Amino acid sequence: MEDPLIIGGRKFKSRFILGSGKFSLEMTDAVIRNGGVEIATLAIRRANAGGQENILDYMPEGITLLPNTSGARNAEEAVRIALLARELGCGDMVKVEIVRDSKYLLPDNVETIKAVKMLSDEGFIVMPYMMPDLSAARDMQAAGAAAIMPLGAPIGSNKGLLTRDFVKIIVDELDVPVIVDAGIGRPSQACEAMELGCAAVMANTAVATARDIPKMATAFRMAIEAGRLAYLAGLGRVLDRGGEASSPLTGFLGDL
Fold first, then answer.
1. How far apart, in whole angstroms, are the C-alpha atoms of residue 117 and residue 94?
2. For 93, phi and psi rounded to 5 degrees?
3. What pLDDT was estimated at residue 242?
4. Which tens digit of pLDDT belongs to each residue from 70-110?
5. What is the pLDDT of residues 170-196, one digit of tens each?
């Protein structure tokens, strides 16, 4: 069954997007292959390492790079980073990440909306990382976002889908793909996000801090696939009270 993920007119088979910031360069290739990953984020400061080992050397052929604007504190800085990434040959997809708060690392939705508009006007396929707020998500979609990336929990926390109900609202109301980014700590949580109707899941720390990193990448791939299949199949109904026999119940043994 063909069920592509479409972002900005581009098709992908995999719905597992890898944040590559916490892996050793040597581990990057193994995680991408085990996870079946087709899109991997890229922090520009890792791509431009001044002649030292470069993460681009460890990306398998065919991977779509998703540069992020990590380090940007406002829209103007995010645009400068995105333009630099394009000059470095990283393509025209960009994940907008604007964080002014160094304690909780929460994204600034107001500055992100500005950046989405500016980068969309520059011809980028823009994927904004955001707090899961419906009004802001609508503004980002109107400004040209190709996908919306609400957080599940604070970045790097592995706490899971704490924003579940708000992510679900965005999934139900927007027309662009919704990709949960940040906070997902377990494959089961990635599966839950997909069951909600999210188009994809992005993970980084959950895989990077696992005991067996390649095996965890495989687990995330399988969980995301299972969640997507469950969503397409349609989850069974839940009873408000009582129970229901799983086979026709016409009487108890004592009645025979």
1. 13
2. -90, 140
3. 86
4. 889 999 999 999 999 898 888 899 999 999 988 889 999 99
5. 999 999 999 999 999 999 999 999 999
Q: Please tell me the distance from the alpha carbon of residue 63 to that of residue 232, in angstroms, as a whole number.
A: 26
List Cα–Cα distances, 153 to 56, 131, 184, in angstroms.
29, 9, 7
**pTM of the prediction?**
0.86
Separation CA 73–CA 75 (nearest Å): 7
Q: Is 117 a catalytic residue?
A: no
Note every long-range contact of 5-8, with CB atoms under 8 Å and residues 24 or more positions apart, other chains counting.
Answer: 5/177, 5/199, 5/200, 6/177, 7/93, 7/125, 7/127, 7/146, 7/147, 7/177, 8/93, 8/125, 8/146, 8/147
Label residue 97 left, alpha or beta by phi (over 0 means left) and psi (-120 to 50 means alpha). Answer: beta
Sign, Cα dihedral of 156, 11, 88, 114: negative
Residue 156 backbone zone (phi > 0: left; psi -120 to 50: alpha; other: beta): left
CB 9, CB 193: distance < 8 Å: no
Element spanning 111, H or E: helix 109-121
Tell me how far CA of residue 60 lies from CA of 17, 56, 151, 175, 192, in angstroms: 14, 9, 27, 31, 29
List 11, 13, 95, 114, catalytic entry: 95
Question: With left for phi above 0 and alpha for psi between -120 and 50, is residue 245 left, alpha or beta?
Answer: beta
- Average pLDDT score over residue span 227-244: 91
Residue 49 pLDDT exceeds 50: no
